[in-house]
Amino acid sequence: MSMRGNILVADDDAAIRTVLNQALSRVGHDVRVTSNASTLWRWVAAGEGDLVITDVVMPDENAFDMLPRIKKARPDLPVIVMSAQNTFMTAIRASETGAYEYLPKPFDLTELLTIVNRALAEPKRHVTEIRGEEQPDPMPLVGRSAAMQDIYRMLARMMQTDLTVMITGESGTGKELVARALHEYGRRRNGPFVAINMAAIPRDLIESELFGHEKGAFTGAQNRSTGRFEQAEGGTLFLDEIGDMPMEAQTRLLRVLQQGEYTTVGGRTPIRTDVRIVAATNKDLRTLINQGLFREDLFYRLNVVPLRLPALRERSEDVPDLVRHFFKLGEKEGLQTKRISAGGIELMKRYGWPGNVRELENLVRRLAALYPQDEITSEIVETELRAAESAPTATSASMLPDDVTISQAVEHHLQRYFASFGGDLPPPGLYQRVLAEVEYPLVLASMTATRGNQIKAAELLGLNRNTLRKKIRELGVNVYRASK
């Protein structure tokens, strides 16, 4: 049941004012609209309104400049900020200045009404004090797609918490960049950011790297060494490629997360720890759990806030912004100013980008360094992309023929899976594990193809909608809705 409220709307666009006025009035709210910030401030200062909806860019004042005054005068008044400048820094500034919620334009009207009802229903509370200290340089999280807008909004919500975050995504999607953003714009930004890549450390040294060791703890330990937990005290510890962590280290990490303390290798005295954990992986941890290679209880300890980074092919509309961004970075490093023709950009948007943003960055740098002309033609882009497609890849799955059937791909996978156990057999329960592994990508692909529309996805799969909802919840499928 929605609560009626007095809504103040400020937007320079008359069409948006009309749409919001009609939509909010239709569900019982009293609405006042204006096209300038000064009128909005006059209403707020007079004590009018239960909620504010405002665009960022107004003719007479930027909403971000006005928000601190609103929060000081009426700290319990929720303010919903809208903006067509759909960047990471817009979402962060909305959070920093005390906005209740940030919505990128174009917005989903149904979602806006849901946010309005939630804001009016929540008990009045004072918002977090607005920070006035100097902020770090903007983080290069680039893109205005619907998928990235969801990422920005999620990050903005996580900045003022210490909740553990699990970032998943293919290699090259920017998982460490997001982890750094969580730290640099969060409440632990004055503490250290310490990263450790599980895949880059010998298995027998991971526990020492994480927790440190005492002198004489093992052969070669000639001095006491601090671990990453101690180095990250008061800050953020980024556990990259968490899926490669050996089982013994997983057990110790779980104990730290449960008890908030650890002991060094060879030590006896427990050490209290105060770090925020951000983990990342490009692997399907649920598959590893089914294979007995990852602890299920550790997964749930780490997966408090799941954050899936979309592959670049899922947000191809961001390619032009990313290309401009990487060219600017190249200019700062002494490379010549370049641009890519419209035809070249279209080719790049249609390319699959198996290496994701990292592959795109490498291509842009290569184009800037190797070609003398100011404008890179579509012919040059096509040549470079064709060379990239013909290059050998690291994953054996990509060596399968293009026309391979699902049955053949599964058979190929199972042959490798059985071979990995040598002369032994896999753990019992293989039938259910295989079904679970196939079910997750099937539901994910269907939800992605229908752009998050559960009704269409259920019809596509031939499932009841309630059954699909249950599977989405059980499997942990997370798909970004398309903006309307």
UniProtKB/TrEMBL annotation:
SMART domains assigned: AAA, REC
Key word rRNA-binding present: no
GO MF entry, a single one: phosphorelay response regulator activity
Sites bearing 4-aspartylphosphate, chain numbering: D55
Pfam name, any one: HTH_8
Keyword Phosphoprotein: yes
All copies of domain Sigma-54 factor interaction, residue ranges: 141-369
GO BP term, example: regulation of DNA-templated transcription
GO cellular component: cytoplasm
Keywords assigned by UniProt, alphabetized: Activator, ATP-binding, Cytoplasm, DNA-binding, Nitrogen fixation, Nucleotide-binding, Phosphoprotein, Repressor, Transcription, Transcription regulation, Two-component regulatory system
Subcellular location(s) of the protein: Cytoplasm
Top-level taxon of the source organism: Bacteria
Protein function: Member of the two-component regulatory system NtrB/NtrC, which controls expression of the nitrogen-regulated (ntr) genes in response to nitrogen limitation. Phosphorylated NtrC binds directly to DNA and stimulates the formation of open promoter-sigma54-RNA polymerase complexes.
Protein name: DNA-binding transcriptional regulator NtrC
Annotated organism of origin: Neoaquamicrobium microcysteis
